[in-house]
């Protein structure tokens, strides 16, 4: 079942645990200077929520097993922090969350991810997203995200089919 995650702080630790579990896949893959443990601190997660990131979750009989955030930014919406627990991968949970948010958004969707996270890029491409050219990527990252220069250098942006 897909549902909106509680925004009252009651699920923050569970969301953080899912993100940090799934983000272990980045260890040794993304630039070493960008990987920290925990990957997402509770304070950073709460800051993201305060900045307008709304999390949606996939829940099964074991509870919340996947999360994906969406953030309205002017004329677009950003998919943020898309993670599925390691032991739940390969079951279509990420695709279900992504399709749900694609259907629910009236705005074109943009996704930023690490350039070296080939599995993430492949996932978004399989779901109809297109990789943006480097010059467009830099403009979009500077316009819609608040991230360090090093992350801009080492990231890519994908857009949904409505962008084209």
Short description:
InterPro entries: Acyl_CoA_acyltransferase (IPR016181), GNAT_dom (IPR000182). This protein has 164 residues and is an alpha+beta fold.
How would you describe the overall organization of this protein?
- The structure is a single chain.
- The protein has one domain: Gcn5-related N-acetyltransferase (GNAT) (Aminopeptidase, 3-Layer(aba) Sandwich).
- Helices cover 35% and strands 26% of the residues.
- It contains six helices and seven strands; from the N terminus they run E-H-H-E-E-E-H-E-H-E-H-H-E.
- The protein has a seven-stranded mixed sheet, sandwiched between helices.
- Strand 4 (76-84), helix 3 and strand 5 form a beta-alpha-beta unit.
- The chain is globular, with a radius of gyration of 15 Å.
- It starts with a strand and ends in a 5-residue tail after the last strand.
- The mean pLDDT is 96.
- This is N-acetyltransferase.
- Pfam families: Acetyltransf_7.
- InterPro entries: Acyl_CoA_acyltransferase, GNAT_dom.
List keywords for this structure.
transferase, 7-stranded mixed beta sheet, 164 residues, GNAT_dom, 35% helix
Write out the CATH superfamily name.
Gcn5-related N-acetyltransferase (GNAT)
Please trace the helix and strand order, writing H or E for each element: EHHEEEHEHEHHE
Mean pLDDT: 96
Mind telling me the C-alpha Rg? 15 Å
Continuous helix count:
6
Helix content: 25-40%
Q: Beta-sheet strand percentage?
A: 25-35%
Structural class based on helices, strands and sheet pairing: alpha+beta
Q: Strand sequence of the main sheet, in spatial order?
A: 1-2-3-4-5-7-6
Distance between the termini: 31 Å
CATH fold group: Aminopeptidase
Q: What count of structural domains?
A: 1
User: Per CATH, which architecture?
Assistant: 3-Layer(aba) Sandwich
The global form is globular
Report the major sheet.
Answer: 7 strands, mixed
Low-confidence stretches: none
Level-1 CATH class name? Alpha Beta
The strand count comes to: 7
